[in-house]
Amino acid sequence: MKWTVLCVILLAAFSAQAQTGTPENGSPENDSTFYVVDSVAVGLGSMHDLSPEKIASISVVSGAGVVRKYGERAANGVIYIETKVFARKHYTALFANSSAAYKQLLTENKGDDTHFAYVLNGRLLTINPEGELSAIQLTELRAISVMQPKDLQRIYGVKDKVAGVLITTSTSSGAAHGGGGVITAK
Q: What keywords would UniProt list here (predicted)?
């Protein structure tokens, strides 16, 4: 999985270079790819310190909207990368503001949701839940409820979590934005 994510990042960078006609020698000085990590514009040098295990999602976005937002440096598109820590802050705030039961559970666990099992539209999230959960928008959110550990074990076979968090969205596929929130292109 980590090599797949890393390969996608590198492929996107080389694709951007090929589209802009920049030299293909792969040197960082010639990289015209524009990266945004956790809402902060970064250079290619910062990407070397980013471990694939820490990435929740990657989105490749191009068009007039990103040029308006970031200027000409984004003319060839932007690679947005969201880390799991940043994603967790996003979705826990969204869920806590939308559900008193979730907010109480999060408070009881000192803000640490790693002991929760998340179920999105009836599907237990086991691989990269941060990516899928951070892709949920407020307008898509329909319901959040908390499931007791005994019910979580009986229904989903999960034994090592303090609670289950059941999330219902307006999307019926189970994933908030296709691809599990891992990699998207717009």
A: Signal
* Residues pairing with 143 in the sheet: 168
Burial code (b: 16+ CB inside 10 Å, e: under 16) for 65-80 equals: ebbeeeeeebebbbbb
d(CA 166, CA 143): 8
Do residues 125 and 164 both lie within one domain? Answer: yes
Question: Phi first, then psi: what are they for 113, rounded to 5°?
Answer: -95, 5
- 3-state DSSP percent of the chain in helix, strand and coil, to 5: 45, 25, 30
Domain that residue 166 falls in: 86-176
Please give the radius of gyration of the chain, using alpha carbons only, rounded to the nearest integer.
Answer: 19
What is the reported pTM? 0.72
Say how far residue 21 (Cα) sits from the centre of its chain: 30
Do 41 and 105 have their domain in common?
no
Name residues whose C-beta falls within 8 Å of residue 112's C-beta, 6 or more positions apart in sequence. none
Q: Is the pLDDT of residue 178 over 70?
A: no
* Residue 173: per-residue pLDDT: 46
Provide the pLDDT confidence category of residue 121 given band limits of 50, 70 and 90.
very high
- Whether 106 and 32 map to the same domain: the answer is no
Distances 1 to 11, 12, 39, 147, 184 between C-alpha atoms, Å: 15, 17, 24, 30, 16
